[in-house]
Design a protein that fits this description.
alpha/beta; Alpha-Beta Plaits; five-stranded antiparallel sheet; Rossmann fold; 7 helices
Length: about 220
């Protein structure tokens, strides 16, 4: 996949390294040459110095053939302008913009842009860690409304079935890791001692999940 990342701060730099290490063709844009230099000589992608919403700079970075574009600078307005140019003018299939102000997310969603708010994500993650310490949240979706949690099956649930902790619209066991291998269970799959279960759960139902699993803090 050909990816362009606009902004070489901490988030942009790390994203670029991860994607490049995964084998993607990555180009990083930043107006600050010093920021680009932090990528070092071992970086497997390209760098382009310039303003990330300048069309000439974007064309130089290869946006006309890009499969994805991420705007990760430290300024919301710049990220949105760059993302809209990538989305509306160059028709890049996948465009993501980083936002610091989560109140703007709904506005940009109406414009067809995918936004990531580190402020919202961080606050949600802190809340989860403080109020549901027994559940390990490994991923969230949307604005954090749905999460994937992982936990080793409690002893009292060994021999029970997936259907016993499934609540339509609230929880769903999406995978079980058993002896190092992952399986996709059915409602009739029985839990075994040592299973690690991965559950998709609506965050409003976290307390009920804790109760089903027999953890503290549930109702």
């Amino acid at each position: 996949m050909k990816v362009i990342i606009m902004g070489c701060g901490r988030v942009g730099e790390q994203t670029a390294r991860m994607l490049a290490d995964d084998g993607h063709q990555v180009t990083v844009i930043d107006y600050d040459a010093t920021a680009l230099d932090r990528l070092g000589t071992q970086f497997k992608g390209r760098t382009v110095q310039g303003v990330g919403f300048d069309r000439t700079v974007l064309v130089k970075a290869g946006i006309e053939h890009a499969d994805a574009f991420a705007a990760t600078s430290s300024m919301d307005n710049i990220n949105i302008v760059a993302a809209r140019i990538a989305h509306n003018i160059f028709h890049v299939p996948r465009v993501v913009a980083r936002l610091f102000d989560p109140r703007r997310a709904e506005i940009y969603h109406r414009l067809g842009l995918i936004t990531i708010s580190s402020t919202t994500w961080g606050a949600e993650r802190i809340r989860e860690l403080l109020t549901h310490a027994d559940l390990d949240t490994v991923m969230t979706f949307g604005r954090g409304e749905v999460a994937i949690i992982t936990i080793e099956i409690p002893t009292h649930l060994a021999g029970r079935m997936v259907k016993h902790i499934t609540m339509p619209g609230e929880t769903n066991v999406v995978a079980i890791t058993r002896q190092g291998q992952a399986i996709m269970p059915t409602l009739g799959t029985e839990f075994r001692t040592g299973d690690v279960i991965h559950i998709a759960v609506h965050v409003a139902s976290m307390d009920r999940v804790e109760a089903l699993l027999g953890l503290g803090g549930g109702i």
